[in-house]
Amino acid sequence: MSANLEKTSFLFGSNAEYVAELYARFLKDPSSVDSSWNGFFRELDDDSRAVLNELNGPSWSLEEGTLANGALDPIAASLESIGAPAATNGNAGLVAHAQQVYGGISHQQLRAATLDSIRALMLIRVYRVRGHMNAHFDPLGLEKREPHPELDPATYGFGPGDMDRPIFLNYSLGLETASLRQILEILQKTYCGNIGVEFMHIQDPEEKAWIQERIEGGRNHTDFTVNGKRAIYERLIAAEGFEKFLQLKYTGTKRFGLEGGESMIPALEQILKRGGQLGLKEVVVGMAHRGRLNMLTNFMGKPFAAVFSEFQGNPSSPQDVQGSGDVKYHLGTSSDRDFNGNIVHLSLTANPSHLEWVNPVVLGKVRAKQAQRNDLEREQVMGVLIHGDAAFAGQGIVAETLGLSELRGYRTGGTVHFIINNQIGFTTNPTYSRSGVYCSDMAKMVQAPIFHVNGDDPESVVHISRIAAEFRQKFKRDVVIDMVCYRRHGHNEGDEPGFTQPLMYKKIRAHGTTRELYGKQLVEENVLTQAESDQMIQDFMKKLEGEFEAANSFKPNKADWLEGKWSGLEAAKTDDERKGNTGVAIDVLREVGNKLCEYPKDFAINSKIARQLEAKKKSLETGEGIDWATAEALAYGTLLVEGNGVRLSGQDSGRGTFSHRHAVMYDQNTENKYIPLNHLRPDQGPFEVHDSPLSEAAVVGFEYGYSLAEPHSLTLWEAQFGDFANTAQTIIDQFLSSGESKWLRMSGLVLLLPHGYEGQGPEHSSARPERFLQMSAEDNWQICNLTTPANLFHAFRRQMRRPFRKPLVLFTPKSLLRHKLCVSSLSELAEGTNFRRVLGETATDLLPNEQIRRIVVCTGKVYYDLLQERTARGIKDVALVRLEQLYPFPRSALTEEFARYPNAEVVWCQEEPENQGYWAFVDRRLEGALTSIEHKASRPSYVGRPASASPATGLLKRHNQEQAKLLEDALVIR
């Protein structure tokens, strides 16, 4: 045992009086105690220090029974620390108080009583910290935990003979005095019953005190009325009955049932009901597939007939709505629920099998809806996330999402997290799927209170859910409910869980359902009779039979994807032009541009930025030399003055990774911010720019969610380097690329992915365009690699100026941000201009079109490398054609360019390796364009880097050699 541990045991044991006096000396004069004790007191652990700090730093006399230097003696200080009145007449006053409290005791007895109080306070505090370790969460009783030694009264010097004498508590548990037996009974009931609470890790004193009062004040006693108990029972009947009905009608069909976790349904009802009383108007829910069908019907109000119809193989949307659809336990819905006049709107976000990845999507939707309601206090719209235990502990997106909770650009006023703790992950036991004690340990990173509760005690589950809703509404912070339960049929209804968990499933097969156990309890309590219980079950099953019959003729009568904020928008047209009206009057462009160059007179601007603003002013005056950053800002600014919002986030987005944007300027003396885009016109739309945490997955998910809820705001996410988008690949694959096809959910999210080969190595060159192009189908999004600021301007504006929304994946430049040739004129942004999917040859000194021997087709930054190399070599018979939009593929526009050069061969040139980049995507499409006009060249040939496992070399010399070779191969005809 370590020295400190020995001394801690000594402190909390029978020698506490001696140690207390030593501690008092230490507080008065640290040098007055032995050096070993001096070091011990300085290094006390949090629990010990917290208890000793409750003594409020007393100065103890060195002689018993006397006052030294006006300080109270040990007895006085101890009594004062636990709430006794301060002495005014020396020991006589203390003894009088002790006699009043304890019935007349000696000085020595008074000292013993004081030590009893101190030890009891230690015991009470440790129950608040560790009581959950002895609680009864598991309905199956499988987890055998030894009693925690710190919860043993003997640890604090109490023995069997100390159980019944009175101890002064100063109302610590709501009691002035209590016996140790009474104290333990209260603590066990409060902290070690079917509810366990973790809250002492919270640093905010008000939050911690609120939870303590709420838990101890109610003694975790649920005290439901007869009507309240019957309401809970009705919800359990519905939850269990629906699952049993599905098992009967569709035996063995996967549905990922809730069986074992039915208490979730009345718990969520309580969150809505109490939340509505506290100002809640709207709830956005995210969850994986476990229990989703139960959620859709018994909580969201989706017709049972609709679900039965889907089980019969019918689509969930009208026949005339396009899309691939999805399995029924991934789908979302929305509805309104009425709680005694409080209408709460619910929306369940569609989610793939990637479990927790819906989390940031929900938060983004919540943030957008709060903005729409001007909900500055964040009390009207709330997110509820329903998790699995193994997924909550195992998936990193959970930590990334929690990390957003208190950030200015992403906070939503707290989320209620509800964990359906099945005590298993597919077939993996908890001891093999997490390192912590609880699946919820991750939530401590944001100091969220965590309520553990036994799922077979529905009253406790509902009680805790009410407290969680109140905490969220009061403190606007995350809160976690960990409902420990089980799943009756294994991972799915066709599974045989006995293969891997034979003991657990022997126990489950012999274990009554939550509804059965609660029904028995209510009969014993005379809340209802057995006959009433049976009748309630029969009535519900009869209702399901009627719904089942109705499913045969059920037809969805509408799709809800273009309602609410989406009203007025429509499905995308098949016309491949779809340019939108994106040009802007010159006077408006100059008005906005000049505002972008202004800042307050007393603002100490950075001298380099001041020079940039002067150059920007000049380009606006002359109408020439509009660079990338200016065109981007003009696109945002003109959308803002037209009433749209703009939200941009990402790592370093305020300044821009490459110091080109400076959307946020900082006073060089005070660091106060100035954002020119928020000072254009009084009635403009809102502009937000946020430097995000170093998270791609959660932030992309958040912005995708924001775009789902707010179609009238241009929502953009910018990667620090395009390569970093790979850590958000699940959001891109499962939501952004396929969400419209699977779930009929449009998004106008823009991904800005810096891309280009400048010798910066394999992780700072490629945004992996091949991945995005491989997922391109069904008109699901737009993939662009632009070469002019004007095209950037129009690309952004067409996101808002068309009657539909599509994601835009934009490979943005790095070196081109300051390239002298990468500029546009103001006239190219003016009325009558628009986005150009293909840019043909612009040089005027080439040979006539019939004498052009080669067309080099390319995209992005390599165009300028080719242009400069062609000029340097004096080549006149090679034309350069830029493919600005890769998907939807602009076949007609490209065909027109090919037709201009009937005698030319066609080369596709890219910087990326042959197995990456665009070649695999454009090869056959270029061939199709050529054969459609019977061009001399029937197929394109490839020029670029050879196939490679790595995106790029990390050696600058080798990079330069590779770049020189591909330019020569593209331009020199041998």
From TrEMBL:
Keywords: Glycolysis, Oxidoreductase, Thiamine pyrophosphate. Pfam families: 2-oxogl_dehyd_N, E1_dh, OxoGdeHyase_C, Transket_pyr. Transmembrane segments: none annotated. CDD domains: TPP_E1_OGDC_like. GO terms for cellular component: cytosol; oxoglutarate dehydrogenase complex. GO terms for biological process: glycolytic process; tricarboxylic acid cycle. This is 2-oxoglutarate dehydrogenase E1 component.
